[in-house]
Specification:
This protein is α/β, with parallel strands linked by helices and 137 residues long. The chain is 23% helix and 33% strand. It is globular and about 55 Å long. Pfam families: Glyoxalase. This is VOC family protein.
């Protein structure tokens, strides 16, 4: 028996604000939008935002949904077609309201990567695999 990852739900205190960010800054198309829940069009894994207080209701008031969050709980990784696209998209996201964390740079693990935060402080990455050249082969 095996399980399959079907979706990722981002818990939010301000669902409309985070929805605006994922739609207007990151470019995801909204397919369901309710006051407490938003679902985006995405190939592969379902991406949604849900109100954290309602998740507490769904889990008999589990403390983890009502306590103030401290620290990073997850990271979304957005792959770009090329290293050049990472720089362009990072600048675009920041100009539209993302918080720049680390500007894109070539990393030791063979990617060009930059980090940004959404309005609730979740830090995500933009990356592209660097092409193999004779210099780094």
């Amino acid at each position: 028996m095996r399980v399959k990852l079907e979706g990722i739900t981002v818990l939010a205190l301000d669902v409309p604000r985070l929805t605006s960010f994922y739609r207007d800054v990151l470019g995801f198309k909204v397919i369901i939008e309710e006051g407490h829940y938003t679902e985006f069009e995405n190939d592969g894994v379902r991406l949604a935002i849900f109100a954290a207080p309602l998740m507490a209701d769904n889990t008999n008031g589990h403390h983890s949904f009502v306590e103030e969050r401290k620290g990073q709980a997850f990271e979304l990784n957005f792959e770009c077609a090329s290293p050049e696209d990472v720089y362009v998209m990072y600048d675009d996201f920041v100009s539209k309201g993302a918080t720049g964390i680390t500007a894109p740079k070539v990393t030791s693990w063979g990617h060009t990567t930059g980090f940004f935060a959404d309005p609730e402080g979740n830090i995500h990455s933009l990356f592209a695999v660097n092409p193999v050249t004779a210099e780094n082969a």
